[in-house]
């Protein structure tokens, strides 16, 4: 018997490709902005919370002479600009609102499993997983005690660290290696992944002030490699949400 497949079946190949397609930059920016805003407002309410990769917030407050009203007005302008951007992107059909749930679910799976995977990899290369002190948070040293503060810190780490180390630094390195130096794609990716992952891990000790420990450095090095791979093949939003959810998982539930 020959069975006919309805052309309106929800599980067509094009639909599957849509589910598995990486998130474009326009959609990523739209999905990430709420986390950025949570951190921006949270930092104002919780002055002890901050992120070493944040190149904007503290300097912005300083430029505004620590004026709360001016800071809120400026962030309100950011939010208004974001809404305008969303409307423009929707009109141009560059914004895929249906990607919200898939991005969160995919990121949650990565966040819940990457710690176990990294500890197994460390064991395979001869580094005792116990040296990593289980699964360290990726945020800066000195995790705050309050639940709200931890969530704000996780949002800041996810947004700013992925912005600096993946969206800016990794993208620039790939352009330099491939376009300027003529290095083939595979080697350029490998170099970019390793260098940015090493810088990402080192920043927690150099900028974050965390004591140097080999296990912790290697653990975060693997985290950086995973985030680089997620960013390159799945998109900026998935990398940010994976990073944020991982930190929430470790700091709140771990």
Question: What do these coordinates show?
Answer:
The structure is a single chain. The protein has 254 residues and is mostly helical. The protein has 9 helices and no strands. Helix 2 crosses helix 6 and helix 7 packs across helix 8. It has one domain.
Structural features:
mainly alpha, 71% helix, 254 residues, 9 helices
Q: Note poorly predicted spans.
A: 1-16
Q: Number of helical segments? A: 9
Determine the strand fraction and express it as a percent band. Answer: under 5%
Quaternary state reads: single chain
Average pLDDT number = 80
Question: In total, how many beta strands?
Answer: 0
The total number of structural domains is 1
Question: Rg, please?
Answer: 20 Å
Summarize the structure.
Helices cover 71% and strands 0% of the residues. With 254 residues, the protein is an all-alpha fold. The chain has one domain.
Write the layout of secondary structure elements.
Blueprint: H1 13-20, H2 25-45, H3 57-63, H4 68-91, H5 100-124, H6 147-180, H7 185-206, H8 214-234, H9 236-253
Helix pairs in contact: 2-4, 2-6, 2-9, 5-8, 5-9, 6-7, 6-9, 7-8, 8-9
